[in-house]
Amino acid sequence: MKAISSRHVFTQGKLQEAAIVYNKGIITDIVSAKDIPKNCPHRDYGDLVIMPGLVDTHVHINEPGRTDWEGFNTATKAAAAGGVTTVIDMPLNCIPVTTTLDAVNVKKACLKNQMWVDIGFHGGVIPHNEHQLKGMMKAGINTFKAFMIDSGVDEFPESDTNTLDKAMPILAKGGATLLVHAELDNSCQQPLIHDKASYDEFLNSRPHKWELDAIALIIRLAQKHDCKVHIVHLSSAKALNLIKEAQDKGIKISAETCPHYLILNSESIPNGDGRFKCCPPIRNHRNQMALWQGLEQGIIDFIVSDHSPCTPALKRLEEQNLWDAWGGISSLQFGLSLIWNYLKINNYSIEYLVKWMCENPAKLVGLENQKGQIKKGFQADFVIWNPNKEHTIDKKEILFKNKMSVYEQHKVFGVIEQTILAGVVIYDKNKENNFTHKPNGKYL
Ligand SMILES: [Zn+2]
Questions:
Q1: What is the rounded distance in angstroms from the CA atom of residue 290 to the CA atom of residue 305?
Q2: Most exposed: 37, 127, 265, 279, by fewest CB within 10 Å?
Q3: How far is the CA of 45 from the centre of ligand 1 (A)?
Q4: Span from the CA of 72 to the centroid of ligand 1 (angstroms)
Q5: How far away, in angstroms, is 442 Cα from ligand 1 center?
Q6: What is the pLDDT of residue 191?
Q7: Measured in angstroms, how far is the CA atom of residue 371 from the centroid of ligand 1?
Q8: Residue 357 has pLDDT above 90, yes or no
Q9: Ligand 1 centre and the CA of 3: distance in Å?
Q10: Residues 120 and 215 in one domain
C-alpha cells in the first residue's frame, strides 16, 4: 500500500486537498491527509496538481512497417513525459494495417519491452474486410476506424457507402463504435494549383463542405444501422449543428478535435511549411473559436492528439511543397501544456482539462470504469504537474522519434513533474534518468 497527497487533487469533480491510497496499481481509498493509514508510505506533493493520467485515443505509432516514422518505444516514452498514461493506436500507417486478426497479433508481438504506458489498438474497416471484424472484436477491440476519403496510404483504402453498409451492422451487433475520418469529395474535380507553397490554396482545396457532406452521410448510416459513430479530428465548426441535431435525435454520434485545430489557425500559418499540413486542414481563427464553443457545449466530447509523425524529408520543407507533403502533426508529448495554456489564459478551470483529456476519451474505448478519473477502484494513473509554471517547448526535449514540431518555441503554462502508471512512477522530470529502468505498461 502507498499514498500520495497534495492540496490540489482532482477528484469528485474538483480540486481539493486529499490523499490517494493505492495498492497493486488500484486506488483503494481517497481520504484526507490525516486519515492516511499508519505505516503506509506516503509522499506529499504540496501545491502541485494531482490529476488522472491523460487518455489519448488517437495516436499513429506506425510500427511495424513504418517504424522510421514512429515506434512504440519512442511514442510511449513521449506519452509518459506528457502525462499520458493510456494511448490507443490507429490502424494505419503501420504495415500490415490493423484490419485483420492476424495483423492485430503481428502488432501485439512488437509491443514487448516497448510499452512505457498502457496501450490498446483500434481496428480498421476497409473494403472487403467485413469478415474480419468479428474476430477482432472477440480479441477485445471495440473501436474501428474507416476513411471516407483517400487515407494517403495504399494499404488502407477508403470505405464507400457499400462497404460501410456491410460493416456497420456487424459493429452495431457487437456493441462496437465506428470511427470516421469524415471528409467526402463529391466534386470529382482535380484542383488547379497555382502555388504549391500557398497555405490558402491548400486550405481551400479541402473545404468545410467535404466535412459536412461526410458527416451528413455518416449520420444517415448511423441511424439506419443503429451503430455508434465517432467523428475523429473534427476541424470544421460548421458541422457542429449537424452533429448536435443528430445527438438530440438520439443518434449515437460523438466527436473529438485536436490541439492543432484549437491552438493554431490559418492566419498565422506560414506558406511553404509542410509541418502545418494535416487533413482535414487547420482553418481560420473564427472557426477555431467556434470549436472551443462546441467543446464547451458538449457537442465535441474531447481532445486527443492525432499524433501523426513522419520522417522530416516527407514534409518537403526544402521544396516548400504543401501538396506532396505528408499530412500529420506530432504533439503527443505536449497536449496537456498546450491545452492548459489556452484554458488558463481564458479563465477555464482544470475541470475542463480533466473532462476533455482524461474522462471523456476513456469512454470511447470502454475504459470509463478503469481510467480517466481519480476514484476508488480505478487504476492508479496520475500526472503530477505545476499549472502556474511556464515552459518553452524546445526541440531538445522531444522524445517522439522525429524531432520536429510546429510547437517549437511556444511558451506555455503547465510543467509535468511526474507521471505515475498503475502506482509506479514511470517519469520523473527531476531525476537524472527520467524514466523507470524498464517499461511498465501493459496491453489493454
Ligand atoms: Zn489520425
A1: 19
A2: 37
A3: 36
A4: 16
A5: 22
A6: 79
A7: 22
A8: yes
A9: 37
A10: yes
C-alpha 197 to ligand 1 mean position (Å): 23
Do 146 and 201 share a domain, yes or no? yes
Residues 26 and 94 in one domain: no
In this prediction the pTM is 0.97
Asked if residue 371 belongs to a domain, the reply is no
Tell me the helix, strand and coil percentages in the chain, rounded to 5.
30, 25, 45
Q: How far apart are CA 107 and CA 374, in angstroms?
A: 31
Of the pLDDT bands very low, low, confident and very high (cuts 50, 70, 90), residue 187 is confident
Residues 18 and 153 in one domain: no
Dist. CA 60 → ligand 1 center (Å): 6
What residues are neighbours of ligand 1 (ion), with CB under 5 Å? Answer: 306
CA 308 to centroid of ligand 1, rounded, Å: 6
428 Cα: distance to centroid of ligand 1 (angstroms): 29
* Cell numbers that stand for 437 in this block: 529502468
Q: How far is the CA of 372 from the centre of ligand 1 (A)?
A: 21
CA of 325 to the centre of ligand 1 (A): 16
pLDDT tens string 368-395:
999 999 999 999 999 999 999 999 999 9
The maximal CA–CA distance of the chain, rounded, in angstroms, is 73
Determine the distance separating the centroid of ligand 1 and the alpha carbon of 225, expressed in angstroms: 25
Are 204 and 329 in the same domain? yes
User: Do both 247 and 120 map to the same domain?
Assistant: yes
For helices 130-138 and 161-173, angle between their N-to-C axes, nearest 10 degrees: 30
Residue at 372 is within a domain = no
CB 94 within 8 A of CB 107: yes
Q: Are residues 384 and 350 in the same domain?
A: no
Residues 141 and 223 reside in one and the same domain: yes
Check which CATH number belongs to the domain holding 399 and give it: 2.30.40.10
CB-based contacts of 51, cutoff 8 Å, min separation 6: 10, 83, 350, 353, 354, 358, 374, 382, 383, 384, 385
Q: Separation of 36 CA from ligand 1 center, angstroms?
A: 43
Give the end of a domain, one of 313, 331, 364: 364
Residues 6+ apart with CB under 8 A from 76: 87, 114, 115, 116, 117, 119, 439, 441
Range of the structural domain that residue 320 is part of: 53-364
Predicted confidence (pLDDT) per residue in 14-30, tens digit? 999 999 999 999 999 99
In a domain, 254, yes or no: yes
**Domain-embedded: residue 437:** no
Question: What's the CATH code of the domain at 120?
Answer: 3.20.20.140
Q: How many domains does the chain have?
A: 2
